Amino acid sequence: MQTIKTKAYGEIQVAEDSVIEFRREILGFEGLREYYLIEMGDLPNFYWLQSKEDPDLAFIVVEPRIFKQDYTLNVDDSDLKLLEIAPGESVVNFAIVNIPEDVNRMTMNLLGPIIINSNKRLAIQAISQNDDYGTKVPLFSLEGAAV
Amino acid sequence: MLVLSRREDESIIINDNIEIKVIGVKQDQVKIGIVAPREVKVYRKEIYDEIQKANKEASSTASKIAKLKDALSRNKPAR
Questions:
Q1: In chain B, which residues have their Cβ closer than 8 Å to the Cβ of A144?
Q2: How many Å apart are CA A121 and CA A91, to the nearest integer?
Q3: A108 neighbors A137 (Cβ within 8 angstroms)
Q4: ipTM score of the complex?
Q5: CA of A27: how far to CAs of A99, A108, A115, in Å?
Q6: B63 and A43: CB-CB below 8 Å?
Q7: Cα–Cα distance for residue pair B65/A10, rounded to 1 Å
Q8: Closest by alpha carbon to A26, among A49, A8, A44, A7?
Q9: How far, in Å, CA of A48 to CA of B67, rounded?
């Protein structure tokens, strides 16, 4: 185990080899290539994507299918090549969550999905080929929500 | 930045295999055609700008965890 600094939890212990290398950085955060994916203990399906190089930088990410069942990942083959996916390796896909002032209107970014080869621990922020997906897709159906 | 003047139907070639052609010019709009190998990705720059903006916004709101828990307990997934 090793100790890392995080924005949400201060110093925590993670497995020695758990860092994920971004083969193409998160847009707007060029130069930062190493992140940890940290489970959000009491919130299943949500994770912190914590920068190794900048402890103050962290994103909340979620598995998009939890909130949008018909979601399909559709990205360019050349994006996937960066992840060096070999047969049998597993790929997971997340969306960055944005929490506005009105938290009921929380959104996720499906235009720039985060894709991770969990075996080789390589990641990218891709660009969706599906034009219907924007950067602010609502997580919740507000109908019938208790206000 | 390299700046070249081109007329309608004229092209430039980049790297021997990417052709960018001016298809038409109408008022303040230029129609551009691109011929490139399959592995060359072409996106409108707004897409990059949009994702970058969303990333910045998300990084600055990522500490509102208490709010997130609250919203999850009260709302239904969009599906």
A1: 76
A2: 10
A3: yes
A4: 0.89
A5: 18, 15, 14
A6: no
A7: 14
A8: A49
A9: 15
Helix%, strand%, coil% for chain B, nearest 5:
35, 30, 40
Give the 3-state secondary structure of residue A92: strand
Distance in angstroms (rounded) separating the CA atoms of residues B39 and B8? 27
Question: For residue A143, what pLDDT is reported?
Answer: 65
Q: What is the rounded CA–CA span in Å between residue B32 and residue B54?
A: 28
* Contact assignment for A27 to B71 by CB distance below 8 Å: no
Tokens 């004229």 locate to B10
pTM higher than 0.95 for the full model? no
For residue A128, what are its two tokens? Answer: 């969706």
Q: Indicate the residue of B51, B68, B77 with minimum beta-carbon distance to A135.
A: B51
Alpha carbon distance A33, A57 (integer Å): 12
3-state SS assignment for residue B71: helix
d(CA B74, CA B79): 15
A2-61 residue pLDDT tens: 899 988 888 988 888 899 999 999 999 999 999 999 988 778 889 999 999 999 999 999
Name residue, tokens 């660009």. A127
